[in-house]
Amino acid sequence: MSQFTFYAKKPSENYHKVDIWLLASVLLLWGLGMFALFVCSQNFAIRAFSDSLYFVKRQFVSSLIGFVLLVAFMVTDIKVVRKFVSVIVMVSIVLCVLTFIKPLSIEKNGARRWLRMPGNFSFQPSELIKFAMVLFLANYFDKQEKLENPEEKTVFPCVIGLMVFVGVVLAQKDFSTGVFITVLGILIFFVSGAKLRWIWPFLLIAIPAVFLMIFLEPYRIQRVIGWIRPDEFGSTVNYQALSAKKAISAGGFWGSGIGAGLTRINSIPEIQADYIFAGWAESMGFIGVIAYFVLLCFFTWRGYRAALICPDRFSAYAGFGCVSIIFLQSIVNTMVVCGLLPSTGINLPFFSLGGSSIMVTLAMSGFILNVSRCEESSEKKSENVEISIETLSHL
Question: Residue 22 belongs to what H/E stretch?
Fold first, then answer.
């Protein structure tokens, strides 16, 4: 099963102190995100709710819950976390199913993806599905690796599980998240060492299904056409994209400033959500954009490093998956805002307004920090991570 070995076979060790640099990067990303929300959402919040800090307050309340989850996942023994993987998976799927019950869910733009919560809050279960899927695959692949009989090893249940995760998300008409989960699942299949011949049947079904779902919804076709012809449809499907490009260009090198930076981003509908990066770019300029990507890459490096040196295979796989979720979502979102990808519903972790997103993001960050506490012994630190590319001959 494991021709490609992401995990290096090392003896289990005791937990150590958390990676302080990784923790600092998480706190800085959250802090920058709150600052960006403060800068970008004031005018719209005043017009809609007569409170310039309306969105900031809501995000802060969700962040408090998120930090509780961060601490819980950071200090809890990963063995204990692993015992609850099946519970997390079942809860995430059940919550997705509950979105189809009208009294319990909220409908926006013809889709039901949110559950009603107390205090005029809502929860989007598809955010939790990403975390649950990573834990599920990591748990299963670790169990498979421990089987001594090669004939007993199979990833068929993982393929079925991935299809279930993707299916419940697509049923909510959340096409972008469904595709994202599929790509993330295949990435974890690859790093776990699973034979990729198991993936081909899944891809033979998934790829035609993606094109079919695009052509079944007119607005998805319009988004693709708008992306191919970016200078057209400026008043309809390309309005947000063109407004975002103007805002980014207006930022220049140093940025327009906190106050002046609100001029152009007011033309972007719901700037506090998926297109908040355009507001950050206009206010902080090129130097602010570079600072963001440097911080994101630093977080990603420390996160992947923690996963690579962790002696526990489950922790390594799950940590890798959690870092990948945050990093890939960030890259996809910024590429959409810059016009390099068609418009999607993928938000910007730590920045975009969304209680579900910030809570799950901080929970995953806590898990990554927990993984960083697990280190190899000093005698082993000089060893390279064992990566065999023998699998390429089996593709």
Answer: helix 20-49
DSSP state at residue 385: P
pLDDT (tens digit, 9 = 90+) per residue, 371-389? 998 864 333 443 333 433 3
Q: Which of 230, 263, 279, 270 is nearest to 40 (CA)?
A: 279
- The beta-carbon contacts of 47-50 under 8 Å, at least 24 apart in sequence, are none
Long-range CB pairs of 260-263 (<8 Å, 24+ gap) are: 261/39, 262/39, 262/40, 262/42, 262/43
Report how far Cα 256 is from the mean position of its chain's Cα atoms: 29
CA within 13 Å, CB half, 297: 6
CA–CA separation, 217 vs 232, rounded Å?
20
> How buried is 172 (Cβ within 10 angstroms: 0-12 exposed, 13-18 middle, 19+ buried)?
buried
**pLDDT, tens digit (0-9, with 9 covering 90-100), for 66-96:** 999 999 999 999 999 999 999 999 999 999 9
Average predicted confidence (pLDDT) for the chain: 82
94-121 pLDDT, tens digit each: 999 999 888 888 877 667 788 888 777 8
Integer Cα distance of 269 and 198 in angstroms: 43
- First-to-last CA distance in the chain? 13
Q: At what angle do helices 156-170 and 125-145 cross, to 10 degrees?
A: 180
Full DSSP string of 199-218: HHHHHHHHHHHHHHHHHHSH
In three-state secondary structure terms, 73 is helix
* Exposed / middle / buried, residue 190 (Cβ in 10 Å: 0-12, 13-18, 19+): middle
Provide the 10 A C-beta neighbour count for residue 87: 10
Structural contact between residues 74 and 369, judged by C-beta atoms closer than 8 angstroms: yes
Sign of CA dihedral 328, 330, 335, 336: positive
At 95, is the secondary structure helix, strand, or coil? helix
Token reading at 243:
């407004």
Task: Report d(CA 355, CA 269) in Å as an integer.
Answer: 19
Tens of pLDDT along 21-66? Answer: 999 999 999 999 999 999 888 888 888 888 889 999 999 999 999 9
Contact assessment for residue 257 and residue 40, using Cβ atoms and an 8 Å cutoff = no
